[in-house]
Amino acid sequence: MSHRQRIVAHALSPAAYAPYGDVLMASPHGQPGRPANQGTARRFDHLAGLEDLRPGRAALNLSVFRCAPRSTSPFPIALLEKHPGSTQAFVPMNARRYLVIVALGGARPDLTTLAAFIARGAQGVTYRPGVWHHPMIALDAETDFVCLAWEDGSAGDCVVVEYEERERIAVEIAP
After folding, report:
1. Burial class (CB in 10 A: 0-12, 13-18, 19+), 131
2. Is 14 helix (H, G, I), strand (E, B) or coil?
3. CATH H superfamily, domain 5-172
4. What are the pLDDT digits (tens) for 77-101?
5. For residue 102, which of 23, 4, 1 has the smallest C-alpha distance?
6. I need a labelling partner for 54 at 20 to 30 A (CA). Which of 73, 111, 128, 154 fits?
């Protein structure tokens, strides 16, 4: 399959990912955290901005996604989705690494801002409200992700744009 455009996935870092959301990890900016649990742990607070932008009342939904591994490289982007009214957070429970694909935009993704990152198992991510992204992509093994988002059951919970095969962009994934 030939793709009109290719991008390369880079290692996930807080600085590179900042336009799209936050990287969830211990000490993302080198802060020492604070002692917790009688000195047996370090606590890192306020790692992400979490927002519910809906005018009505949406319920906070804590769910788990079990994702089958995808090893295709290049990985074809068949669709992107966004959640206009809510931050969405994903935290892997058992991953070695996974692929994160994001783009900015309004009614449709701005593909000039399309970026791909390879996240380590010790990193979670948030998508800011309205950030276009691909659904979770486990790379090496079946992976469970904890997901946190505000939802009200309306069609606005998740907006999807699908791409025909000739429009798809491919993501190169380093082994």
Report:
1. buried
2. helix
3. Ureidoglycolate hydrolase (2.60.120.480)
4. 999 999 999 999 999 999 899 999 9
5. 23
6. 111
